[in-house]
Amino acid sequence: MLAPSVRHLEFARDDGQPLDFIPGQFIQVHFNYADGTPTKRSYSLATMHDHALGPGEAVEIAVSYVAGGAATALFEALDEGQQIQASGPYGRFCLMPGDSNRRYLLVGTGTGVTPYRAMLPRLEALMKERGVEVVLLFGCRTPAELLYGDDFRAFAARHPNFRFVPCFSRELPAEPGPDDRRGYVQDALPDFAPSAEGDIAYLCGNPNMVDASFEALKAAGLPVPHIRREKYVSSK
């Protein structure tokens, strides 16, 4: 359990084949409702890789548990060694090869931070290749909900060009770090002076946050193609 209502799960393909994916993409898990009606849910890959996953390498996802949710019932009942049906990967919420920006502003809430974890190896390469800077603004309510916080803090400690800024809307840590903030991520955005000339922004998570951040970045002058969005909506 990454948080009281979020579980980290790892799977391996049962056919022994590699899984080609680009960090930022998602898979779809297929299952049936209790009445037999087929349905599916989408989950961003959390695996920190910048290459195809080889045979047996873990396909990692973070699953939010929703009270009474059909997908929650599926995942809660899983024991080690059991199988799910999945397809993909899909999606274009990815770092683009042709980008020439000076800085990435990555903004996420809840499990919307998952694709940024997968992007870390590629971001590390971009820092070395062209000195790009990265700011990750992660919004959650309490310290207990800071998903993958240890991974991001460790990455920031190793890379001066990477800044991790957790924003807590309800409760700060007992001993806040220098970049820990109270409030919402969209309210912290102006502190980083978004620039039309040098920035590309990624927004992932709560739809209200995505919309508010999108408007703030447009007002700061960022062209719409430089604001890349993916909204997460919890489904039962």
Automatic annotation (TrEMBL):
Signal peptide: none annotated. Its EC number is 1.18.1.2. GO terms for molecular function: ferredoxin-NADP+ reductase activity; nucleotide binding. Gene3D superfamilies: Nucleotide-binding domain of ferredoxin-NADP reductase (FNR) module, Translation factors. Keywords: Nucleotide-binding. Its cofactor is [2Fe-2S] cluster. The keyword Nucleotide-binding applies. The keyword Nucleotide-binding applies. It catalyses: 2 reduced [2Fe-2S]-[ferredoxin] + NADP(+) + H(+) = 2 oxidized [2Fe-2S]-[ferredoxin] + NADPH. InterPro entries: Cbr1-like_FAD-bd_dom, FAD-bd_FR_type, Flavoprot_Pyr_Nucl_cyt_Rdtase, FNR_bac, FNR_nucleotide-bd, MRET, OxRdtase_FAD/NAD-bd, Riboflavin_synthase-like_b-brl. Residues 1-96 form the FAD-binding FR-type domain. Pfam families: FAD_binding_6, NAD_binding_1. Belongs to the ferredoxin--NADP reductase type 1 family. PANTHER family: NADH OXIDOREDUCTASE HCR, PROTEIN RFBI. This is ferredoxin--NADP(+) reductase. It comes from Arenimonas donghaensis DSM 18148 = HO3-R19. The lineage of its organism: Bacteria, Pseudomonadati, Pseudomonadota, Gammaproteobacteria, Lysobacterales.
